[in-house]
Amino acid sequence: QVQLAESGGGFVQAGGSLKLSCVVSGTRFSTYPIGWFRQGPGTEREFVTAISWRGGSTYYADSVKGRFSVSGDNAKNTVYLQMNSLKPEDTAVYYCAVDTALRFAAAQAMDVSSIDYWGQGTQVTVSS
What we know:
The chain is mainly β. The chain has strands at about 5, 10-15, 20-25, 35-40, 45-50, 60, 70-75, 80-85, 90-100, 115-120, 120-125. The strands form 2 sheets. Strands 2, 4, 5, 6, 9, 10 and 11 form a 7-stranded mixed sheet that branches. Strands 1-3-8-7 form a 4-stranded antiparallel sheet, with no helix packed on it.
């Protein structure tokens, strides 16, 4: 049973930065790519980024390229999402996620409907 726990959300002004954390347990850290998703008010949950320990690959949605950066600490079983130049449209609940069908795969876009494990989410609010 994979368990994911996000933290680090909060309230920030447009142009500011936040760093989210996702602690992974219940699985060897290198087994699955870890994805980040978000769900804004009245919107569907969408893919943001993913990281895989197979070659250290990363993958980003176009909407966050150049502003967000995903990284990880194997020793701490933790994935980080550094968010810079935040915009009001980045306001959302952010989730980390695992799709067990991607075992040992490189980072790639992940499908909401394929996710097997979700964290509880952490709220990010960006004011204009």
